[in-house]
Amino acid sequence: MSDSKPEKPITMHPHPLPPVPEGMSKSQWKKVWKKKRFEETKDEFAKIRREKRQKAKETRRAKIQEYLDRGEEVPEDLRRKPRKNQDQKDSGINIILDCAFDDLMNDKEVVSLSTQITRAYSHNKRENHFAKVKVTSFNKRLRTRFEEGLKDAHHDEWKNFEFTEDPTLPTENSVYLTADTDETLEKLEPGTNYIVGGIVDKNRHKLLCYNKARELGIPTKKLPLAEFIKLTGREVLTCTHVIHLMLRYFDNLDWKEAFETVLPQRKLEEAEAAAEAAAKAQSPQAESSEPSSATSEEEPQD
């Protein structure tokens, strides 16, 4: 298969920051200006996102065709699964998304978290095994995002997914998953509550979930990531990846197989190359004067 270059992130031409109004700090004015610019350009961003999704579909089809033309098996990560798995089995585990970190994220990161949750829901209804998932501290901007920006997703009707404002986390039979601990999660135990930190922070808040778990007296463990895949930098996965890996583990009770199918090395290398290209594409001028660039977030999959 021919090598494909990572796509560039969606960006808009930078606009100089207007003079700061009297009585307002530069940082406050920058936030107001970014929000104003976002409102002015959101339709254009939506159009670009649609075009990117269409291009991604065409690229996927082309990759699949290359495998078929060579008479090779299509990799798992390129296959489409049915929108709902009718033969699912209960994994017996409970997954709790601890979303009590709204104040530590910017608007773009809240949007990203909402997308991760919708993708996690999609995996939970398509995989061979499902978990009972609860989203705690469902309030503030995250709740607004679902009730306004994602209202067509009907999150309150999702099967095996519960949303609650209650921030309380169970401490009995619970494990808080965090990359900052030294303890590795060897296997998943039915009847156990696995808590996942619901935060997108680009590594700004290290030890956040670890320290919270310790304060609550909840044991901490990490997925055996380093044993099976190679990542540069800190070993942090998205909420989507964590939940997908846990569900896939139950297929054969095998972490190695779960990692190889959910996060094949080829896919990781492509993602890292794309992230590096995105970092190089951003300039200080664009960051200081332009609203956060839109990302190619997927629409919720019902």
TrEMBL record:
GO molecular function: tRNA (guanosine(9)-N1)-methyltransferase activity; tRNA binding
GO CC annotations, alphabetized: nucleus
Start and end residues of each SAM-dependent MTase TRM10-type domain: 81-270
Keyword Coiled coil attributed: no
Enzyme Commission no: 2.1.1.221
Keyword Ubl conjugation in record: no
Positions with biased composition (Low complexity): 274-295
Enzyme active site: D201 (proton acceptor)
Recorded catalytic activity of this chain's protein: guanosine(9) in tRNA + S-adenosyl-L-methionine = N(1)-methylguanosine(9) in tRNA + S-adenosyl-L-homocysteine + H(+)
An annotated GO BP: tRNA N1-guanine methylation
Region (Disordered): 1-29, 50-89, 270-302
CDD domains assigned to the protein according to its UniProt record, in alphabetical order: SPOUT_Trm10-like
Keyword terms: Methyltransferase, S-adenosyl-L-methionine, Transferase
Superkingdom classification of source: Eukaryota
Biased composition (Basic and acidic residues): 1-10, 56-89
Binding site for S-adenosyl-L-methionine: L177, G197, C209, L223
Database matches in InterPro entries: MT_TRM10-typ, MT_TRM10-typ_sf, TRM10/TRM10A, tRNA_m1G_MeTrfase_euk
Protein name, as recorded: tRNA (guanine(9)-N1)-methyltransferase
Organism: Lachancea thermotolerans (strain ATCC 56472 / CBS 6340 / NRRL Y-8284) (Yeast)
